[in-house]
Amino acid sequence: MTAATIPGLDQAPTTHERLLSWVREVAELTTPDQVVWCDGSQEEWQRLTDQLVEAGTFTRLEKKPNSFWAVSDPSDVARVEGSTYICSEKPEDAGVTNNWMHPVDMKMIMRELYRGAMRGRTMYVVPFCMGPVDAEPPKLGVEITDSEYVVVSMHIMTRMGSKVLERFGADAEFVPALHSVGVPLEPGQQDVAWPCNDTKYITHFPEERMIWSFGSGYGGNALLGKKCYSLRIASVMARDEGWLAEHMLILKLTSPEDKVHYVAAAFPSSCGKTNLAMLQPTIPGWKVETLGDDIAWMRFGEDGRLYAVNPEAGFFGVAPGTDYHTNPTAMRTIEQGNTLFTNVALTDDNDVWWEGMGTPPAHLTDWKQRDWTPDSEEPAAHPNSRYCTPMSQCPILAPEWDDPKGVPISAILFGGRRKTTVPLVNEAFDWQHGVFMGATMSSETTAAATGQVGVVRRDPMAMLPFIGYNVGDYLQHWLHIGETADTSKLPRIYYVNWFRRDESGKKIVWPGFSENCRVLKWIINRIEGNATAEDTAIGRVPSADQIDLSGLDTPREDVETALNVDVEEWKAEIPLIEEWFAKISNSLPMPLGDELNALKHRLG
Ligand code: GTP
Ligand code: SPV
Ligand code: MN
Question: Where, in this chain's numbering, is GTP bound (predicted)?
Fold first, then answer.
């Protein structure tokens, strides 16, 4: 079939030449049965969700309006870091932390995979915008996909459709993002509920600002506005243009004196961003409002402060561990409906359930669609099961969440999952020391990416899988931001760890979740000059007296354990940091080596 005869191809609601020719080129290559230009309307949502129910991909939930349960192919449950590539012209521009292939070679491989890949399917053209639509300029993209699941997810996670296409005009810049599940259908062939291919490639062409993804339907691999655009491609744009694209939540904190501070925090995947962003304080008078739970774009404002914008419009949150005790805000967001659940368990009355939601019902359908009872050996929900829900439903959404100007950041938090060594909170001596903290932060791996779980790895700024260029250049960019800024206006940097354990290694000593407001309070008081800290070898750490523990039933010795700076543990950490720096030695900025030497010196 020639492109001219593909139904829908010529019904483009745009005159944008580059967009039109790219869509035509992809249609010719992938040969779908028809092309649909997505408008983002309620009618489109209705039509596609009905179709997904019909196809068996979605089960309509009884207890939550306009909400659906989906289970993936058991092999397609997380990001695939091993198949994720940065295809820069030169390998050194991808660096040792990324997989690299030359763009010409990668395109050759992927063109063959894409050839005819949409046969028997519909090709959807999804114009989207990351960040506010009235930003100047708006950050536009177009995802072409053959997955209805992806289209409806993009309805929630991004601003998309006709209102966005208007901003394309005749010649606006946009990021082309091509996605196929990689399962063509023969005439009459019955589709499976979750098509995906064993061969997967998640590839980025940073010089061309382009994304090609093949073989997976899972969030971070398939919703290309998210990690692919807003982190990997955007981090390259940010390097070139002097801003930051980061794996960070954004929250607004109001003190009892009505002082407002905005905080951004970078924790690796499945390490607590959504929970902190939606925190419900347990100390009287403090209020948290949410602006974002996963990605922050930060640039300097005219006043010299760093302003953050969340490029997304929805939450793609980890389900397990979420309930009314840990994260009531998330529960109140999803209970309003309009939510997609993937790889959680289904109750007998068509509601959702996952581990951490209290006592399990006597019977469930698990994420592999098997009968499940509390005696079953495997969890009912996949540990990386997710809810996908509109931000607009968040009961504590900050009104300024959609302001293109962004919000001025007072503090940046780095943090990871560490059973030992890293104290509850630690203030950097200055920006450069803070960048060192971010550059050397470490965390146990989680189920958000395929591979082993619980292995400690260095994860600079929680961006290891998301830096679209050389990690050393990325760290240099962070240092450069500090050198060019008015130091007094830069956010202060903190390193936190909610996950430290007692000597047995079994119990997490800090209660975490809502109680993390006590750490936020100390941080804000530090910024306002109203709290003290102890100078230690690793940074400025409060004693238990310096943190508001009123009304907290955690034993004081546990809090002390959480805050402890153990010089021996830190001495044991040094070789691990050295190993990491050796790995990136080709591009490691000198000041970070100096910081390591200074740390060694302070440890004695
Ligand atoms: P991504 O969406 O993968 O980027 O993850 P995230 O950083 O938003 O992680 P999220 O907030 O969803 O938390 C992941 C898991 O960590 C959930 O199972 C939470 O219940 C758990 N968690 C979050 N905050 C805390 C905390 O303060 N203490 C403890 N012990 N667990 C937490
Ligand atoms: C993460 O893995 O950090 C996520 C989920 O936030 S995904 O969108 O799949 O990347
Ligand atoms: Mn994330």
Answer: 270-275, 386, 417, 513-516
The verdict on residue 587 lying in a domain is yes
Please indicate, yes or no, if residue 74 is contained in any of the structural domains. no
Q: Tell me which residue of 562, 374, 373, 589 sits closest to 479, measured CA to CA.
A: 589
* Best probe residue, ligand 1, of 271, 310, 384, 425 (max atoms within 8 Å of C-beta): 271
User: Tokens 């012209």, residue?
Assistant: 89
Query: Given the CA of residue 386, which atom of ligand 2 is nearest to it?
Result: 5
The last residue of one of the domains, among 241, 263, 279, is 241
What pLDDT, on the 0 to 100 scale, is given for residue 3?
61
Q: Is the dihedral of CA 540, 499, 476, 130 positive or negative?
A: negative
**Segments of the chain with pLDDT less than 70:** 1-4
Task: Note the pLDDT of residue 207.
Answer: 98
Q: Which ligand 2 atom sits nearest the alpha carbon of residue 268?
A: 3
Residues 366, 268 within the same domain: no
Clarify whether 271 is annotated catalytic.
yes
Residue 127 near residue 140 (C-beta atoms within 8 A)? yes
**435 and 539: one domain?**
yes
One domain for residues 225 and 292: no
- Read off the CATH number of the domain in which 574 is found: 3.90.228.20
Atom of ligand 1 nearest to the CA of 386: 2
* Whether 385 and 264 share a structural domain: no
DSSP string, 338-398: --EEES-EEETTS-EE-TTSSSPPS-EE-TTS-EE-TT-SS-SS-TT-EEEEEGGG-TTB-
DSSP 159-172: EESHHHHGGGTTT-
The domain of 149 spans 3-58+80-241
Q: Which of 271, 388, 394, 517 is catalytic?
A: 271
> Could you tell me if residue 208 is left (phi over 0), alpha (psi between -120 and 50 degrees) or otherwise beta?
alpha
Same domain, 321 and 466: no
Single out the residue in 241, 274, 297 at which a domain terminates.
Answer: 241
- In a domain, residue 248? The reply is yes
> Whole-angstrom Cα distance, residue 441 to residue 458?
6
What is the overall mean pLDDT for the chain?
A: 97
| Number of neighbours of residue 501 by Cβ within 10 angstroms | 16
What does pTM read for this prediction?
0.98
Q: Is residue 403 part of a domain?
A: yes
